[in-house]
Amino acid sequence: MIAGPSGPREQKGQPGLVSAALSGLCPRCGAKTLFSEPAALAEACGSCGLDFHALERGGRFVGVLTMLVALVLILAALGIDEWLRPPLWASFLFWAPVTVGSVLFALRFWKTMWVYHQYEESQP
Ligand SMILES: [Zn+2]
Fold first, then answer.
1. How many Å lie between the centroid of ligand 1 and the Cα of residue 66?
2. In the chain, what are the domain boundaries?
3. If you measure from the C-alpha of residue 61 to the centroid of ligand 1, how many angstroms do you get, rounded to a whole number?
4. What separation in Å is there between the alpha carbon of 74 and the centre of ligand 1?
5. Rounded distance, CA 38 to CA 48, Å?
6. Is residue 120 within 8 Å of 9, Cβ to Cβ?
7. In the 8-state DSSP scheme, what is residue 44?
8. Which residue among 27, 83, 86, 98 has the highest number of C-beta atoms inside a 10 angstrom radius?
9. How much distance in Å is there from the Cα of 51 to the middle of ligand 1?
């Protein structure tokens, strides 16, 4: 495989994006500086100074995404409730972490995808 200067745009599927979202890797230097909180972007990269907030212009979609994830989870919870009829405490024990985890991961993944996309667009 040839590693050209054209970057990840040439690659299909971008397998690195999931790990970049999980670890919060800076698109420019690869340091783990993208997130300052579990689902909040840092102001800028502490390692190379890349301005993340300037790249993040997808903020208005994030709320929609959160609602979609929550909606899917609520429907899934209702379906499982109908099917298994678990006790309430079991439902809560299961769905509380699943919901929080899914929303956090969806947010991280979305923001990482968006910042990487914007970063590539901003490259000459
Ligand atoms: Zn950086």
1. 27
2. 13-122
3. 24
4. 37
5. 21
6. yes
7. B
8. 27
9. 9
CA triplet 58, 64, 69: central angle to 5 degrees? 120
DSSP state of 13: S
| Residue 65: per-residue pLDDT | 77
Among 54, 53, 35, 56, smallest CA distance to 105 is for: 35
User: E strands within the chain?
Assistant: 35-37, 40-41
Cα first-last separation, the chain: 23
Residues 96-109 have pLDDT tens digits of 899 889 888 888 88
Q: Say how many Å lie between the CA of residue 45 and the centre of ligand 1.
A: 5
Tens of pLDDT, residue by residue, the chain (124 residues)? 444 444 444 444 445 888 898 899 999 999 999 999 988 899 999 999 999 988 887 556 667 777 888 889 889 988 988 888 888 898 889 888 998 898 888 888 888 988 998 898 888 8
Q: Extract the tokens encoding 108.
A: 């991280």
